[in-house]
Amino acid sequence: MGNAVRPQRRAILTGGLAAATAAVLTGCSSKAGGSDTAKAASIGAASPTPSANAARRPDSARTAYARLMEGNRRWVSGKLQHPDQDPARRAAVAPEQKPYGVIVSCIDSRVPPELVFDTGIGDLFVIRTGGQVVEPVVVGSVEYGPLTAGSPLIVVLGHQNCGAIKAAYKALKGGENLPGNLQSIVEALRPAYKEVAKVKHADPVDAMIRAHANRTAADLRSNAALAPLVKKGELTVVSTYYSLDTGRVETLTGAPSA
Fold first, then answer.
1. How far apart are CA 79 and CA 66, in angstroms?
2. What does each C-alpha distance from 237 to 9, 158, 206, 230 come to in angstroms?
3. What are phi and psi for residue 151, nearest 5 degrees?
4. pLDDT tens per residue across span 59-73
5. DSSP state of 239
6. Is the pTM of this model over 0.85?
7. Alpha-carbon torsion 92, 234, 251, 102, what sign?
């Protein structure tokens, strides 16, 4: 975290995967159905039809964030639509993906972004790490959406009762080291811990969760590859906080206004 070193560019070999996927879709047919079935399958794969309830891809950070928050309200109320989660959508995005958002969240099993925002296949790039810690290789994954698919929105999703941040807080306060590579997570969270330690908090772990989400978003806004997009208004980075109790996503900083 902090001023993470920007990773070297890597060649992204997506063309071969897309071609292979198309070949499988067009080449496979039911033996029982004969040539007519094979022909129909080939036509369907070549010109996939979007889901009946498919919505137009948001064209700005504001509309993208509004889409996510609308989905979160459905999650909170239990009125889920499960949009674009059918075979037609799967076929439609097989040749190419263009997600409208990037979610940087924790690995916590209770915080599945696609459900929290009631989204579908091809809508989001989701990067999940312990405590949503962002280090160089993870930054490369975050950069992928805006730089290759024009995703206009990045959401850093912190959450209530984060086990990784709770463990890091205890380790840092007690001057202890966690085993294995868990200590690298602790070190990445040290800046948030120092920030919180300056002021007395009723719940210092929760304060650290929020501080870390805000710091991560700020670091991504100033990232060498992403900052020019932010400056031009082509990318917005928002920090948020998810309540395990209610399911509600709270905006912390950076909500798009235009």
1. 17
2. 21, 13, 21, 8
3. -60, 125
4. 999 999 999 999 999
5. E
6. no
7. positive
Instruction: Give the CATH fold of the 15-253 domain.
Output: Beta-carbonic Anhydrase; Chain A (3.40.1050)
Go through the chain and tell me how many residues it has. 258
Average pLDDT, the chain: 84
| Helix residue ranges, H only, the chain | 15-27, 34-46, 61-77, 87-93, 113-116, 136-144, 163-174, 182-197, 204-221, 227-231
Contacts of 88 (CB under 8 A, 6+ apart): 48, 49, 50, 51, 52
DSSP 68-103: HHHHHHHHHHT----TT-SHHHHHHHSS----SEEE
Whether residue 134 is predicted with pLDDT greater than 90 in this model: the reply is yes
Whether the Cβ atoms of residue 214 and residue 201 lie closer than 8 Å to each other:
no
Residue with tokens 């989400």: 213
Using one digit for the tens of pLDDT, what is the confidence trace for 135-179?
A: 899 999 999 999 999 999 999 999 999 999 999 999 999 999 999
Six-digit token string for 177: 């080291």
